[in-house]
Structure formats: structure tokens, C-alpha cells
Amino acid sequence: MAKKTIEDIDLKGKKAVIRVDFNVPLQGGKITDNTRILGALPTIKHVIEQGGTAILLSHLGRPKGQVNPKFSLAPVAKALADELGQPVVFIPESRGEAAEKAVSELSAGSVALMENVRFHEGEEKNDPELAKDFAKLGDVFINDAFGTAHRAHASTAGIASFLKPAVAGFLIQSELEYLGEKTESAESPFVVILGGAKVSDKITVIDRLLDKADTILIGGAMAYTFALANGKTVGDSLAEPKFIETAKAAMKKAKEKGVKFMLPVDNVTVDSLDFDNMSVGNIGASDESGNIPDGWEGVDIGPKTAALYAAELAGAKTILMNGPMGIFEIEACAKGSFAIAEAVAKNQDAISIIGGGDSVKAVKQAGFGDQVSFISTGGGASLEFLEGKSLPGVAALEEK
Ligand code: AMP
Q1: pLDDT tens by residue, 117-132
Q2: φ and ψ at residue 73, rounded to 5 degrees
Q3: Would you place residue 29 in the very low, low, confident or very high pLDDT band (cuts 50, 70, 90)?
Q4: For residue 1, is pLDDT > 90?
Q5: pTM, rounded to two decimals
Q6: CATH among 3.40.50.970, 3.30.200.40, 3.40.50.1260, 3.40.50.620 for 6-170
Q7: What atom in ligand 1 is closest to the CA of residue 324?
Q8: Which CATH number describes the domain made up of 178-386?
Q9: How far is the CA of 391 from the centre of ligand 1 (A)?
Q10: Which residues line ligand 1 (CB under 6 A)?
Q11: Which of 265, 185, 184, 250 is nearest to 219 (CA)?
């Protein structure tokens, strides 16, 4: 069912309370990555162009219900003003009389950012009293914070009960389109790349995608649990022996469904690894049969696997990637993830969707961020959405 969007409502003369995700990385008061600010611009601009007033709510970090200047959104208001090319009024509260008065004084076409909603204990508890107070700030509610949509908080879900119309902004709209519609009814061949640390984190996603994909390519440490299930040795690799049966069940389902389920045929291994210092000891490889000896840890897919996976990706019409192929944060273990990112970027005939979290970092780090069709802005939210779970921040919005 489609949700109402910002394009379905009249904004002229309206005060629009927009929940954005301005949870930006800060170092010494400086914003180190403004992707999230840029992501909210289309919605904010649309509101002011239509003659509305944009009143922005966001969280930043984890102040745990306490006022803490370290997590103030004030620096974000400055950065937003620079990007928008117009002043942004920073209002140092998000509820109560002073906040309401400040908002009532705003003229049409102006933009205000309220202080961190998580300075209030009720935010993460989805306290209805706090949600009501947020609702008093405007005439319509627009949720555009996809990254927090999997949390039922006062400013993401609760507010929608008290402030209507409650609709999706452009960012949420495109997340729903790509992670939802375009993967639900994907054009074939639909090739899915799954990696990352744990099978246990991704099993629901694997199971769900087995119903939709034509091919699934497995990488990351997750591959080692599948290797164990196939009777191989994995040495000191990160694996989950408790999930061997789960892995077997997934492979059985793939066979029954006729899904091509591919596992690495070779691996990059190291005899020691120091994540804090981003360094590794000696570099080796799994043997001909893909076994890894004791004392060695699998850290990436090998070159043969990367070539096989790239060939699958070359013929795809829809691609979904979730999770890196190795410990891409360390240069010596990043080749596989980067090669796959390149293969995804090269196929310009396919709709390519990067499904959030670390795969986004890997694709951007490899330099292909601008050559894929869609990059999801959610981490946990993207994963939960791909698992088929209902996201409270989306569920709360009105149907078309
Ligand atoms: P996830 O959040 O499940 O997508 O996992 C991402 C993390 O998995 C990244 O931090 C990677 O470093 C890690 N990862 C990928 N491959 C491996 C591996 N072979 N061994 C250990 N960690 C890995």
C-alpha cells in the first residue's frame, strides 16, 4: 500500500513539522560528513517553495534524555544554512511555550531547526505527551528520517497520531520505492550480494530474498558459516557454528527455489590482524578446495571469486547489495569489496541498489558512489525493511 507523500498535500501557508535525520558525525564540533544534511534538502526546499514554513526535528547522538551541549544541533543549523543558501533559525528547545512562540513568529518560506529531540526522555519512549507537544509546532507532519524509521519514537511515530496530514518526504519516498517496490517486483535477472559479519544478523534477509532473487552471491565472514555447513575448514575465521543448520536450510531452500546460490571459491587469509591499527600480518589464501588452515583467518573473497561474482553482476537487470565482502576497512582486506563495487557500477543497464550500512561505505570508499542507482540512507532501518518488517515511522503515515 502506498503512503501519502509531500506531493499529495497543500503546503501553502502551512507550518510543516519535518522529522529529518541530522544525526551527522561530529568531530570537535565540526561536521565530518554532511550526506544526511544534503539528503534532506529536496524535502525542505519543496516545503518553502510551496509557500510553507519548515520546522525541523532531529536527534543527534545518544544524549539519553538529558540536555547535553555536546549533542546540540546548533552546528548543524549553520551547515544547513550554508547548503540552503538562506538563514536557518536555530530554536534551542523542541517543546513547550518558548518553542511554540518562536515557531509562531516564523514567516512563510523560512526554515527553523529545533534542538535535539533526544534531550527529552520521552523521545525514545514514544511518550504521547511529548508527541502531542511536537505536534503543536505545526499544521502538517512530514517524516523524512528513514534512518530512524525503524524506531517508534515520539518524533518519528507518536507525533503522527496528533498531527495530520502525516506524510512521507522525498527521501522516505525514494527509500520505499527502491528498497520496496523495485526489489519486490525486480526485473530479472535479480542478483543479490550479501556480505558482512554474521549469518545470524542476515538470515531473515537471506530467507526473504530467496523468494525473489535469481542469484545470491555470498561474501564476508558470513561465508564461513556456509563453508562449515559444506564441511570445509575455516581456521580462525569469524564463523557461527551454531548457525550451521540455518545455513544448510538456506542452501536447501535455494535449491528448491532454483536460486543460484554462490559461495566464495577462494579467500584472502591473514595470520594476524590488528583492527585498531588497521594492519595485518602475513597474507595467504585458502587452498584449492577453499579450506582455511588453523592459525589463519579469512578476511576477504579471493580474486577468482571476485571474477565469478563480477560475471554474474554483468548480466543482471536488478542488483541489491547489502554487506561488504571482507574487512574492507583495512586496505589489505578491501580488494574483494572494491572489485564487487566496481562490477556493480559497471553495469549501467541494471537498477543497482546499495542496501545501507557498511556496503554504502565500501561503495563510496571504492569511488563508485555516484555510479549506482540508489544508495540507502538507513543502516538498521534498511535491513529491517529488506527483512519485510514494518517500520513504525513509515507505518504511522497515512495511506494514499
Ligand atoms: P554487517 O554490519 O553485518 O554488514 O557487517 C559489516 C562488517 O563485517 C564490517 O565491519 C566488516 O569489517 C565485517 N566483515 C566482513 N568480512 C569479514 C570477515 N571475513 N571477517 C570479519 N569481519 C568481516
Answers
A1: 999 999 999 999 999 9
A2: -85, 0
A3: confident
A4: no
A5: 0.92
A6: 3.40.50.1260
A7: 15
A8: 3.40.50.1260
A9: 25
A10: 195-198, 201, 220-221, 238, 298-299, 323-324, 326-327, 329, 357-358
A11: 265
